[in-house]
Design goal:
The protein has 2 domains: 13-41; 44-199, DsrEFH-like (Hypothetical Protein Ychn, Chain: A), CATH 3.40.1260.10. The chain contains 7 helices and 7 strands; from the N terminus they run E-E-H-E-H-E-H-H-H-E-H-E-H-E. By secondary structure, it is of the alpha/beta class. The chain has helices spanning 25-42, 58-73, 101-109, 127-138, 144-153, 162-168, 184-192; strands spanning 8-10, 16-18, 45-53, 77-82, 157-161, 180-182, 194-199.
Length: 200
């Protein structure tokens, strides 16, 4: 009984690729190089860090911003995506003009800026937050606001969620300078290409 043979061809580095005999060596090399480019485009970059900050608590913001500034100091490419309560970290002022009553209430009830947020535990109507800030000052530890400023100075890419801005009635001019505005697709694209992704 005659055995049917499947033709194969040896590509670069001795790799045997089926059906490659129909192509010239130059075409095979081009195809292999394209495959390598495609793999590089879809393989997470271990030098890239992406954080999503959802929480509006000062201690959690401190943790996220500490990681972001540390990664940037290590020469890593860092993106921080701020959404829902975390977007209040980026606020520098309140603008009530032109907002409806619900938007004004949300703006009034949420903190304006990184250093005006409460803490996740033992907040005690703001006393716990004030105590934490005082302890940090006594030990020369940077505040959340200082860490955010340091992060931006060191090239950390800060992105405000466009949907959150719409839902909460916030405007770009209420945010500190140097902030990008983008949707969830931007975060997912960055996260899929990052070697380290964190949700805070």
């Amino acid at each position: 009984m005659e055995t049917q043979k499947h033709s194969t061809s040896t590509g670069q580095a001795g790799v045997r690729l089926p059906g490659m005999e129909a192509f010239s060596n130059e075409d095979r090399l081009d195809m292999l190089e394209q495959e390598i480019r495609d793999l590089r485009a879809t393989t997470p970059d271990t030098n890239k860090v992406t954080l999503l900050i959802f929480s509006g608590d000062q201690d959690k913001a401190l943790a996220g911003l500490t990681l972001a500034t540390t990664a940037a100091a290590m020469g890593m490419e860092v993106t921080v995506f701020f959404t829902f309560w975390g977007i209040n970290i980026l606020k520098q002022k309140r603008l009530y003009s032109g907002k409806n009553i619900k938007e004004k209430m949300i703006d009034f009830m949420t903190p304006a800026g990184a250093d005006s947020m409460g803490v996740s535990q033992l907040n005690m109507l703001g006393a716990g937050s004030g105590m934490l800030r005082q302890m940090m000052q006594e030990r020369n530890v940077a505040s959340a606001g200082e860490l955010l400023e340091l992060a931006l100075e060191n090239g950390v890419r800060a992105i405000a969620c466009s949907m959150t801005l719409q839902v909460m009635g916030l405007r770009e001019e209420e945010l500190i300078e140097g902030i990008e505005v983008a949707g969830a697709a931007s975060y997912l694209t960055d996260a899929s290409r990052s070697g380290c992704t964190l949700f805070i």
